[in-house]
Specification:
With 186 residues, this protein is an alpha/beta fold. It is built from three helices and eight strands; from the N terminus they run αββαββββββα. The radius of gyration is 25 Å and the shape is elongated.
């Protein structure tokens, strides 16, 4: 767990985005009229608090923009929690190339010249490359405090990369949470 959160920082500071978001919810729960929320976060050992504060601020901003109100824990109708994780992924890319072993040969009525693909003397070569990369995941849950029941879950996944400065990191986190929270019930 110690290395998990620092690695998450890389997710949240990735530049080239392959962002994927997914949501799930309880269709029997309505959020009308807009209700009160509280963001619950318990810092982990060796957590990068800069990143977690950026996440908290982005979550709060997105919910307030949708008409929800940030209140104390005691007055909240629902809690927002977030979880992070990093997984090493592997991707195999196979490149199939057709190679004509005799590019200049008699071309069946067309005389001498390039035969192109196919025909005798053509060999298919498959070249596979294995790419390993880190994929970060951010999970945001909306929970009813009395029952501790999840009523909405949003998941954002992206390939980890680096960004150069705090503003780029903040902008990226804001972009991820804007995309994810756009699917939150209004």
């Amino acid at each position: 767990m110690r290395i998990l959160f620092p690695i998450l920082v890389a997710l949240l500071i990735s530049g080239c985005s392959s962002l994927k978001v997914d949501t799930d919810f309880d269709p029997n729960v309505t959020m009308d009229p807009p209700k009160n929320f509280y963001i619950v976060h318990k810092p982990q050992v060796n957590e990068n608090t800069l990143t977690s504060e950026r996440i908290i601020n982005a979550l709060r901003n997105e919910l307030v923009a949708q008409g929800y109100k940030s209140v104390s824990k005691e007055n909240a109708d629902f809690y927002i929690l977030f979880h992070t994780g990093v997984t090493t992924k592997s991707r195999v890319v196979t490149d199939y190339k057709r190679v004509n072993m005799y590019p200049y040969s008699y071309g069946g009525g067309f005389g001498y010249g390039y035969r192109g693909y196919g025909g005798s003397g053509t060999v298919t070569v498959a070249e596979s490359k294995n790419y390993s990369y880190k994929e970060g995941k951010l999970i945001v849950d909306a929970v009813i405090p009395a029952s501790n029941r999840i009523i909405w879950r949003g998941t954002a996944k992206d390939q980890l990369q680096s960004l150069d400065n705090p503003q780029e990191r903040t902008d990226y986190i804001n972009k991820v949470l804007k995309t994810l929270m756009s699917k939150f019930p209004k």
